[in-house]
Amino acid sequence: MTRLSAITPSGHAHIGNHLGAIRRWAREGGPGDLYFVSDLHAMTVSYNPTRLRKLSRELLAVLVAAGIAPDRVFVQSDLVRELGALSWLLECACSFGEASRMTQFKQKAEGQGVVRLGLLTYPVLMAADILLQRATEVPVGHDQTQHVELARSLARRFNSTYGEVFAVPRAVVAPMASRVMDLSDPSRKMSKSTQGAAGTVFVLDDPDLVRRKIRSAVTDGDARLEYRVAEQPGLANLLEILAGCTGKSPVELAESFDSYGAVKEAVAEALIEELRPLRARALSLLADPAELDAVRAAGAALARSRSEHTLASALRMAGVG
Ligand code: ATP
Ligand code: MG
């Protein structure tokens, strides 16, 4: 089994990414699994090249610092030639109707003046990410299951038209319980790409900043200290973050406090401890560019060597290359 998952450098990694994805990848990942920084996916909307490069390095350092084996991590654009080639083969196996039916495309295209063609075709690039590495399981959120379905269809279609080349992947949807909400608006998911960082705790924030952000988290008018997600989403979010750090249940935790202030202090301290080793390792990697370059090169070399045979076979069967 090969599990493949990615994180897009659309912003700094936050505690939702850590508790909901990165920490699980580090703990549960098997020896065949692969995790990558999907910098090519960040180009589908307007972006700044200098910032993208910096964020990609930062995310790579965070993945390794979180404990994912360095040889199981890579940066997507290090395989840009291989992915570009496979993406083209898959675009020619994908219909325009199929691509334009993607819900995420419709949603993301709506608010934009100029819609980049890459926003329409990036699910095909994502199929290339998956099929190139022969991934069998793709852990995703609900918003990405349609894209994994597309990768399945394209793999099957290519295999039946030109010959068996690709492993057919399946989506694995993580339970929703692990969703961290924005601290300044608990009705909204904490996200890298949200403007304004007040409601987002980044994994590399220093302890004082973490404390300040948690202290200013919105809480609900109702002063009951109970875990009630619908009625008190602000408190529930804090209790879930604390549960994520301590392994205790949010209900049990709610009973152990007598004020909102005490809950916030406990959340801040638990988070600071949770992030301390990750932050220290990531900062030391970022301070040693040669070391980070070596990690990056080794990850890219492994991912490339894993993909060589599949790409060569796909090109040959399609009658090119
Ligand atoms: P963007 O705003 O660019 O979509 P994001 O913060 O939603 O950024 P993604 O790159 O879309 O992050 O997702 C990376 C991983 O982090 C995915 O596995 C996703 O399920 C997980 N994740 C993202 N946000 C949260 C959150 N608030 N709580 C728990 N898990 C999250
Ligand atoms: Mg997202």
Describe this entry's structure for a reader.
With 321 residues, the protein is mainly α. It is 55% helix and 6% strand. It has helices at 15-28, 49-65, 80-91, 96-100, 103-110, 117-132, 145-162, 207-215, 233-246, 250-255, 260-286, 289-317; strands at residues 4-7, 34-37, 73-75, 137-140, 170-173. The chain has twelve helices and five strands. The radius of gyration is 21 Å and the shape is globular. It folds into two domains: 4-179 and 288-318, Rossmann fold; 207-283, Tyrosyl-Transfer RNA Synthetase (Orthogonal Bundle), CATH 1.10.240. The mean pLDDT is 95. The strands form two sheets. It has a three-stranded parallel β-sheet with strand order 1-2-3.
- Helix fraction by DSSP (H/I, runs of at least 4): 40-55%
Flag low-confidence runs.
none
Q: Order of helices and strands, N to C?
A: EHEHEHHHHEHEHHHHH
**Spatial ordering of strands, largest sheet:** 1-2-3
> In total, how many domains does the architecture comprise?
2
Count of strand segments: 5
Alpha-carbon distance between the two ends: 29 Å
How many helices? 12
